[in-house]
Amino acid sequence: xxxxxxxxxxxxxxxxxYERLNPRRAAMRDFFNMxxxxxxxxxxxxxxxxxxxxxxxxxxxxxxxxxxxxxALEYLEYNFYNxxxxxxxxxxxxxxxxxxxxxxxxxxxxxxxNLLKGAxxxxxxxxxxxxxxxxxxxxxxxxxxxxxGTFLAVAQGFEDTGVxxxxxxxxxxxxxxxxxxxxxxxxxxxxxxxxxxxxxxALSGGTTVYKPWVSLGSAGQANDSGVSQVDAVYAGEDxxxxxxxxxxxxxxNVGVTKAAAVECFDEPLDKASVxxxxxxxxxxxxxxx
Amino acid sequence: MENSNQQHVVLNESDILSAKLQRRSFLQxxxxxxxxxxxxxxxxKKDRVTPMSGVTLDFKDxxxxxxxxxxxxxLEAAFYIQVASAPPSSxxxxxxAYFQDIQFHEIAHREFFKxxxxxxxxxxxxxxxxxxxxxxxxxxxxAAMAFEDLGVGAxxxxxxxxKNTTYLLxxxxxxxxxxxxxxxxxxxxxxxxxxxxxxxxxxxxxxxxxxxDVVLAAAGKYIKTKINVINL
Lengths: 289, 232
Hints:
The complex is a heterodimer. Chain A is mainly alpha-helical. Chain A contains twelve helices and two strands; from the N terminus they run ααααααααααββαα. Chain A starts with a helix and ends in a 10-residue tail after the last helix. Chain B has a domain at 60-219: Ferritin, core subunit, four-helix bundle (Ferritin), CATH 1.20.1260.10. Chain B contains seven helices and four strands, in the order H-H-E-E-E-H-H-H-H-H-E. Classes of the chains: A mainly alpha, B alpha+beta. At the A-B interface, helix 1, helix 2, helix 6, helix 7 and helix 9 of A face helix 1, helix 2, strand 2, helix 4 and helix 5 of B.
């Protein structure tokens, strides 16, 4: 008996078998069953009801806070990409692969917004419209929407911040059903970050290399983005000791250099630091607290 | 079937969906070619589990989850060591360099778990990469994508099992790097597929989250050592 074949057979008729298999997520199974019967537009709402099931009627305030924090960041990211694509004039993103990639990322950010909004239900924070944002960061990036290279540089900052922000909330979500969803968003942000970095390398014609993973900067600093204005995004990314284990040269593996040790673990960023970064891109009076 | 005490049970979807079966059964994974898996009958009690050959992942606590990650990192490291030592001839210099990078990332992950687990660490796994043609770019990239996407799904699915925040954070620090690897390799295969469906749902924007039984069944074809799973 070969379980791989069995699963593959089932998957042919039931694409969600993998999700169904997790007995700890019976609530999610209910959701996926429901998903077949309802329209896509209603799905975030349905997910909200799943979370309510998982928690009874009272979602712990700390978890609600994390989800609203994540929602604010997703609004920010969505507005950033959406304005580049739909603004007048639109950002000069080359047609073809670059435009398709930015569109895919924008669509993911919107999906994350809707997912979190649905999960939070009436506890969801107020929407953040584009008019609340300032992606020039008070004039630091005046050409953010008119220069493709600047746009990508800021995009990298957003994605790498997003990856760090979700990680920073791990302690609040430990053992919680919501954690799985947060992790599923988190790894998508990391995929986005890797691709944006590749787009920057491609734009430079390969003369400047931005590795898909966060490495050390050219002078050995934590910020490898080449944009010193976003140092705060990378503060502490050069950590080389993990849970008390020194990674450099670990167990005699000399190939694990300091750069490799930095690259192979992404670092979290605490909520206050993320808010400081996010607030650079929000209008006065609209900043997060 | 290599193992005489394996019992055959007829599976249908309702069995697989049954939490009772999942919780109360233990799964034995025997690699060597196809993943040969026997699920013992649903009534199997814990006290009937006798010491088995191979390695045992006991999911009763965080060490079981960390050993599960250690097993996957062993597999990934072994794969990339082989690729990096003799990459397909069509790999560019930049690609060779990035596969070197990934090799050392996976070695570091493997050794991290080994050290973090200390005496609780499982032994070294024997791998079976006979299904991979290491001279073929297509074969190597296909296997690399499978390993990386599987790793992302494995960590995403296992995170909620961890009770210790330090371990959860360490796993979180690793999974986003695996996702970066996955995106890079997917783009090598076809640019723009870094986060496309079905790996990332286009309706929810969510990556995969996979349970250990599914992950180990998929990884089984690359592992010779028998992996016993209990208390899942």
